[in-house]
Amino acid sequence: MKKYLVLIVLLVAGLSACTKIETNTLVKNQADVDDQKIQEYIKANHITVTKDEKTGVYYNVIIPGTDPKPTALSTVKLTYSYKYLNGVSIGSATGAQAKLNTFITGLQVGVLKIGTGGRILLIVPSGQAYGYGSSNGIPGNSVLVYTVDLDGIGTN
User: Fold this and answer.
1) What is the CA angle 144-77-109, rounded to 5?
2) By residue range, what is the domain housing residue 75?
3) Rounded CA gap, 14 and 101, in Å?
4) Considering only CA atoms, which of 144, 119, 142, 126 is closest in space to residue 60?
5) Which end of the chain, N or C, is more open, meaning fewer C-beta atoms within 10 Å of its C-beta?
6) Torsion from C-alpha of 63, 67, 71, 77, nearest 10 degrees
7) Is residue 154's pLDDT more than 90?
8) Whole-prediction pTM
9) What distance in Å separates the CA atoms of residue 67 and residue 70, rounded to the nearest whole number?
10) What is the DSSP letter of 100?
11) What is the SS3 assignment for 6?
12) Total number of domains constituting the chain
């Protein structure tokens, strides 16, 4: 009986490891696909951007704003619009106020780079946006382009 239990535990552990490896491979492959799409978008639209190497988010600080800059735990007031790489608008918000760490990762990365009154262009790979699953009508694996204004920083 103990032999069967050990065999079952090893089998489950082995299958779990395979699933994790496959998932990591899929995420890496999608990041490569996203980066290729972003490179094509940048070239086609003659955009000058910098890549955040840790996250893969591309950005262009249009207006730096004034110090201090927010922290991840700051309450921020944002005005933003966002669209797909093909230019189709998804939506916008004016005066959206919340803790910065409640926004998608790609937006957090960008807003940390500007101060009050600042504006930034962000090209956000799907893994730093909504990932592989659909959300609020946005299909999975969608690369998004944001223009974000930091209207204000509240207290932490």
Assistant:
1) 45
2) 3-153
3) 35
4) 119
5) N
6) -60
7) no
8) 0.82
9) 9
10) G
11) helix
12) 1
